Amino acid sequence: MTSVQQQIPSTQKALQWVRVSGTNPFEWTTSAPVIEPSELDANQVLIENHAVSLNPIDYKIAESNFLNVNLPSVTGYDVSGRIVAIGNDVQDYKVGDEVFGTLSFKPEKGGGAFQQYSVGNTDTLVKKPSNLSHEDAATLGVAYLSALEGLRQVNIDSTTSVFIPGGSGGVGHFSIQIARIRGAKQIITSASKDDGIQILKEQYKINDVINHSKENVVDRVLELTQGQGVNIVYDSTYLPSSFEKSTQVVRENGSWIVLGDFGKEGSPEAINVAQRKANLVHAELGRYWFGPEQKQLKSFFYDGLTQAAKWIQEGKLKPYINKIIKLEETENALNQLKQGKGGFGKIVIKLV
């Protein structure tokens, strides 16, 4: 029997995804349905969202609907909040527990973060420590886990040099921190805006920051590595123009990591990496829902999210939130993100 201990409204505020479009896929509503607790699947929970964060996938999926979602729906995947109802088989969580994590990439009724109440699966959520804010917890979804997923596939130790283009981005700023936590000898990154460069140097103590709008990235990386190049590149920029440069600085037998569908066989970046005699590594969270890694989904998310909370508590990991907005401002913030104007790190929506 589904457990519920509070009155849950039947409608809610939400930024609904109503059409597949690159220009106007969303519509704001104050009357989106809230799923009935009795409709929860056995291992699902209903979360009252306290904070959620934005990622490029939130607008990318609305442009192409590559997961074949039935519309209207809601996008957004990073959540932190309080459980208000649980499915019949949920044992590790109870109503009132505060949780954070990632909503399912699979289309699910009631899913999507850009609303007041979201359906989540217990496999990709963990309990939130009381001394971790909902705002910080909400950043530890897609961007942090993508950084972790890429870097966990390579060896990093006190001899390793790493180049992370776009260190001011969501994935980038987590990647530089994970590389440091794991003991990398040298971390090089890049940014184009003076304030981002300042944050990387002053707050994250990265000495080697390249201004890619003014400097030759390839020349500078080679200069900083005495002409050797780096052992690992993690290029999370989504930009072929960046790939063309970053593939030139990975050493023979090194690793070039890329997000998502990039780096497919026959692509320019795959050819470049092969010519460098380096390894091409894919960081793709979707594989845990749709690929052979499905059996590892629960362990990857539990271990990764629990580790993130511990690192934050130890002062080793510091999510950078450049802006906290209201739910009503989500569509404008997504447009800014799409235009490359999302600012350093993460944008968070505060709901409670």
UniProtKB/TrEMBL annotation:
SMART domains: PKS_ER. Residues 22-349 form the Enoyl reductase (ER) domain. GO terms for molecular function: oxidoreductase activity. Keywords: NADP. Pfam families: ADH_N (PF08240), ADH_zinc_N (PF00107). InterPro entries: ADH-like_C, ADH-like_N, ER, GroES-like_sf, NAD(P)-bd_dom_sf, Zinc-ADH_QOR/CCCR. This is Enoyl reductase (ER) domain-containing protein. The lineage of its organism: Eukaryota, Metazoa, Spiralia, Gnathifera, Rotifera.
